[in-house]
Amino acid sequence: MDRIKILHIIKSLGRGGAEVLLPETLKLHHQEKFEFHYIYFLPWKDQMVQSIEEAGGIVTCIKASNNLSLLGKSKEVIHYCKENNIDIIHCHLPWSGFLGRIVSLRTTIPVIYTEHNIQERYHIATKILNKLSFNFQSMAIGVSEDSSRSVLENIKPKIPVNTVLNGVNTEYFRRNSDKSERIRKQHKIPEDACVIGNIAVFREQKAIPDWIKAFKEINLKHPEVYGLLVGAGPKEDEIKALVKEHKLEDKLILPGLQTDTAAYFSAIDIFMMSSAFEGLPIALLEAMSMECCVVSTKAGGVVEVVRDGENGSLCEVGDYRCLAGKASALIEDPVKRKEYQVAARKRVVNNFSLKRMVDELEGIYFDFMKGDHGNNK
Question: Which pTM does this prediction carry?
């Protein structure tokens, strides 16, 4: 039997949550049954390319300088599909979704779109384009119940909308004391110091200024605590300026973009997330799998994972004082902190494993090949 050929289309292959999932899911897919292709458009955002190729994927960059030029690449994508006998196209994030819908109108190839966010948070132009074009595809998948709800309420699509919750490789993302020791030595963090951390792309959505404000309050109450703020992005200069403004250079470490995130998670005791909005954040699932104690805002799908007072602590979006207060309480109560850490991993292992996610996606692909994909789930 010939393998089913899946083409993933995504704007870039940088280190965002949607992008990171592609090589991780590929490692668990049944590649004797599927052949996976990937097209991306921003050549300077290619951090995931090597990981995908090493896992067995076929990656192609069709260069585009911006969103509008990306939409002009439909002929090249259609040509690629014909040359490689693609059976199903799977698009991620809005502009790749728009392109996929154009391809769908001009071919008979079924197009699936994964929605990683909620409609309410998109720019008005993106929301309008989404609403006008959404039915020009075969199916939509929400990465959280909140993402699916938002599509159903705001777009009211005529196509099926399924929910496939994001997952994490719980075998890979396990706490490792040797890695923790290495990171702490590298950044001169005392072995017994409590570390508050975050791993994120520095963009508006993540509300990193709120994170820094919260850490400042924690630092005033607990000067012995260290911070690890791992990542890079468009807000990087602003973040560095805020760290300097608040005189946190000695206690808040910015290691930049890192590929071995598991090592940094191992060194983090409390994973504090200040996001203004989310789909179902991969970094959160990874942190919980790594037994980090979670303090987070109630952004999007976060509330589908973190149960306040059971496996973490939650605050309203924008309430950095609440983040500081709940983190401080856990610094002062190591027994409760340990309870949350154990419960966090148990929650992810039982409900958000990557294998479960891969199995559900493969089920959808098989249904498409049989022509059985007509119901919302």
Answer: 0.82
